[in-house]
Each structure stands twice: as C-alpha cells, then as structure tokens.
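Here is a tokenized protein:
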Amino acid sequence: MERLFRGILRHRRVVVGVFVVLAVICACLIPQVKIDANMSDYLPPTAKSSQDLDAMKRIYGNDITNARVYVTGISLPDAKALDKSLKGEKDVISVTWLGDEVDVDQPLETQDADTIADWYDGKGYLFQAVLKSGVKQGQIDHIRALAKAVPGARTVAIDGSAADDAANMATINTDMGKIMTIAVIVVLVVVALNTTSYLHPIVMLLTIGVAIVLNMGTNVFRGTISSITQLVASVLQLAVSMDYSIVLLTNFGRAQQETDDQFEAMVSAMTKSFPVILSSAAVTFFGFLSLGAMQFLIGADMGIALAKGIVCSFFSITLLMPCILYDMRGLVAKTMHKPFFRSFRRMAKVCHAGAVPALVIAAVLAVPALLASQSVSFTYGSAANMSPTSQVKIDGDAIDKAFGESQTWAIMVPAEHWGDENALVDDLQKLPTTKSVLSYSTIASSALPRQLADKSQIKQLFSGGYSRIVLTSRIPDESRQAFDLVKKVRSLCRARYGSRYRLVGNAVSYADIKAVTSVDSTTVKLASILAIGAVLLVMFKSLSIPVILILAIEVSIWMNEAVPYPMGQTINFVAFLVIDAVQLGAAVDYAIIFTEEYLARRRRMPKADASIQSIEKTAQPIMTSSSILILACLGIYLSVSSPMIQQVGMLIARGALISVILIFFVLPLLFTLLDGLVRVTSHKIGFYRGDQSERPAPASPASPVSN
C-alpha cells in the first residue's frame, strides 16, 4: 500500500485530472436524472394494489381522480365553459363536474339537493380531474391561472395527489439549496475550530463535493430515483464522509511532527489512514446497503444511492484529498492557527465519573424504549409531507371545508356479470362513508344494451373484459377509517368475485405500503445488524467486541425512535426506517474510533487507565464528526419545508447526540466490565496484565486518534 500511495502522490496531477474530468461529466448528467415523488410507485410488484394499478392503466389507459379544482364566484354558464377548457388541456385526461351528474339546463332547485351539494356549495363549483402521471407544478399553475381568468372568479383551490406530487417536486431544488448551504457552513465552522489551518475545511469540502457530484451524476444510470433520495443522500454523504477526511488530516498532522519531509509525511498518513477508513467505510456501506432488504423499493432506491456515495467518498478522500493537500501545503502553512480545543482531559474525567449512572439509566430505559419505538404512529402518503403553509395544503383545507374530505377509488370487475355487479353496487351504496357510486347500472341500466348507451361513458366503464365501478367516499386521504374501508371493500369484492377484481386508490396503496413496511422494519434492523456485525467481526477478530458495539448503538437507536411515542407525534414511515441504517452506520464509525484507541492502549496499560485516556484522545475526532452531523441536521429541521425531511433531520440529529453520549459514557464502562470476556473471545488480543505471568504484547501501531 505504501508503494501504491507513493506512486499516486508522485502522479498527483494525473489523479486530480481524472477526478476533475469525471466530476465535469457527472455534473452534466445530474440534470438528466429523473425524480419520482410518488411513493406508490415503489410498492413491490407482488403488492396487490400495485398489480391492480398496472392492470387499470393497461386496460383503461388512465388513472383515477387525482386532482380537485374549486373555483368560487363564477356563474353556471362560466363553470360549463371552464369544464370545456379544462378538458382541452394537454395534461388533463378527464374532468367531472356538476354538469356530468345533473341536467344543468334545468333549474338546480328542482333537482337532487344532495347531488348538487357534492359539486356546488353556493359559493363555487368543484371539478374533479384525472391528470397525467408526473404532471409538473407549472401545469398546475397553468390550470390555476386558467380558472382564475374566468369572469367573476374570486378564489381557485387545487389539491389531490397530482398536486401534492407536483408541489413536492417543485420544492426539491429549493430545499436542496438550503440543505447544502447549511451543511457547508456547518463544516466550515466546525472543522476550522477543530483543525490547525483555515484551509483544511475548504480542502475537505472540495474533496467531498467532488464525491457528491460523482454520486449524483451516476444516478442517471439507475433511470429514476425518489425525491426523498434526491433530498437526503447528498447531505448524509457529506456528514458521514467527514469521518474519513478527519482521520486523514489527523494522521497527516502527526506525521508532520515526526518528519520535515512533507512528501514522506503524506505517504505515511495515507498508509496509516487507509485500513481505518476502509473499515469504517465498509461498515457504513453495508449499513446503507441493508436498506435494500426492504420489500418496499424505496429502501433499495435509498440504499444503493447512499452506499454508492460512500464508495465515491472513499476513493475521493483516500486518493484525491492527499494530492490536493500536498499541492496546497504552502497555502495551508500560511493559514495555520492554534487549536481552539487543546485538551479533553476534563471531559474524560466527567465521562468516567458518570459512567455507572449512565449505564444504569441506559439499562433501565432499553426495554421500554424498544417497546415505545414499536408503538409509534406513521404516515404513508404524500399529503402528510406538505407544509401547513404550502399552497396545496391551504387549498386542500379550503376544499375539505366546502365539500368535506373525500377520495375516489376504482373497482374493476368482470364484465357482463350483472347480478354480482348490481349486488356489489348496492353493498357499496349502503356503506356509511359512501358519497357516490358510478357504474353502468347507476348511469343507465344493466338492462340497457351497451350499443344504445353514451359512447363516452361506455369507454370509461367497459374495457378489456372488465366493468369499472367508481366509488367516492367521505373519508380522509390517510386515516384508520380509510384503512378499515380498504379492508371492507376488498371483503365485499372477494365475496362476489373471489380474486378476479381490481381495486385502485390512494388509500389502497397506502394500506399496502403499511402492510409491507411493518415487516420491513424488522428486516432492515436484522440486515443492518448482521452486515455490520460481520464487518466488525473480521475487523477486530473478536466475537464479543461486535456484540458490545452494536448493543450500545442499538440502545441509542431505541431511545431515539421512542421519543415520538410519548410526545404523540406521527412520523413518516420512510424517516423511521431510514434512521435504523443511518444511525447505526454513522454511530458505528465513532465506536470504531474509540475501540481502536482503547485496544491499542489496553495492550500497554490497565483497563481503567486505557478507558480514561481513550475518551480523552478520541473526543476531538468524534466530537468534530458528530457535531457536524447534529448541527447540519438541526439546520435541515429548521429550514426545509417538507415535514418528512424535517423529521429525518431531527431523528438523525437526536440519534447522533444520543449515540455519542452512550459511546463516551457507557461503552468505556462496558469494555472495563467485560474485559475478561473480550480477552477470551478475541484472537491474540494481547491485553496488558501488569505483574501477572503473561507479558504484554508489543504495542500495535498508533491508531489515527492516538498520540
């Protein structure tokens, strides 16, 4: 490895050139990456709602109602004209309004009052539309402007899953800018305070910035990534990768104290840093990759992006960063400053004194925290990710106030089975939540030959051997009531048709997401623990050390995940699933740094001394890395508009803080108490035994955080 790094440093201009070319290419590819904000698209192909939705799109060529437009102040003739204009828009598949339910050429006073109330509230008219998949915010704004231009129009409100997804996509660039700005500022400040040159944070940001560009650009080969991945992958890559650059900087600084030859100092730093960075990156890599064990495909989407980002950061920091640092050694020397934090001895004494109470508290809280974390309530739909101050959320509240909460589902059943279909329609109409049921029999009559019926209605209701029933219910988009209704409607359909029916709707997809992710939670936990445990087993050649590290970190994860339960908070399921892999992957880096230092010192001194000194010597790198993660994620929580991204930020920040507390207070005491177990379950660990007959093994090379 030393010969390899020596050759890389000699040919550093070539190395830098290769990274620059790759970064430019990837930067050009970033705009070509397609982003998907619809979580239903990530249901596994085996999920019934996913199969049903594919079948409906294939057979009928369109989706169900995904947008509502409410316009106040307009007259009935103008509403009729607006209906015609909306149907002429390129991204509008179909529109339904009052004129499709009653004869608007007759006085409304003489017609069914309940039907009219569903479409006209005395102030304005409601239009339900089917918009093409992936409609942009620009088209939503165009529809708003079209409605606003109608004579007399006072207010226009637009909501629905299409509007939610468009709004989510529109906020990505804004939130991405905020996220990266906050992360950059945090890194500049924290690293400058904890290193000896004002240029160090700039070099680190430049290096990791290249890695982020490489990761984002190569996403183009995956076709499409989720909006969640697009938002969080870069900042997580930045925060987690800081550990590797801190290790390299620390080793370079110490090598400079041993030799005046800057070239040899850098080669020495690269050689000593490589195995530690490799081990840390491997643990984080497999931790992120474990998300791919989820049935819900958002896990694989995020896991691949995050794991790929770790690979990009690993090569950038081990190959590119040393070349940049060496070339800028003159400027670095001119910007040197005294360290702002010179000693952590007092902190080590505090951690040692509080270790026993901390261990008792952690032991007492562990099981209740685990149980509480398993009782947290979740959200699954895109509407829950809308900020209360966003236009689409305000519009949705206005429409719900005027016409009540509702959602529309489509049911496909075998055609020409009129007895079963009429019976199913009757069953659906009797449900207390039903607002309306649209089918061939409700429009015309099952006795009327289709040749005599309206052709436009026939096209929407009959196709591919299926008859379609459209059910509109007075229920929230996502609630226990909605999930119960999914079960009820599926039961009614099975009673008439067995498995030969199809049911499509937002709540139907959310119900399947809920069912899938309830299993995924356990799967991700086990996959990440096994993957990281295997890496730690190989790394430390010990059976007990991986168990000790993972146990301490898992308790911190349980504590973090338990917080929403007593506070009565509802958490987005993606944020909750991601935190398992992210917190475990990030916290294990801190644990590795401490453990490497402790084992090196334990070979030379008694366990109590090794414990205290290890806390003192690892405090700066661990505090530097964790404070970046904590402060950056708190900044995300305070600045972005998406509630889900806010939750991710808070969970990671709080999780990093709890993990660091347990690593400094509890982990040293665990090693001290289990010293004998670690000795007998580890391969040639060579612990110091003082006056006993066994002589201490020769001291191993200093770890990246030791003197």
User: Anything to note?
Assistant: The chain has three domains: 2-32+196-313+322-334+353-380+512-680, 58-165, 396-511. Residues 208 and 238 are 6 Å apart (CA to CA). Confidence is low (pLDDT under 50) at residues 691-707.
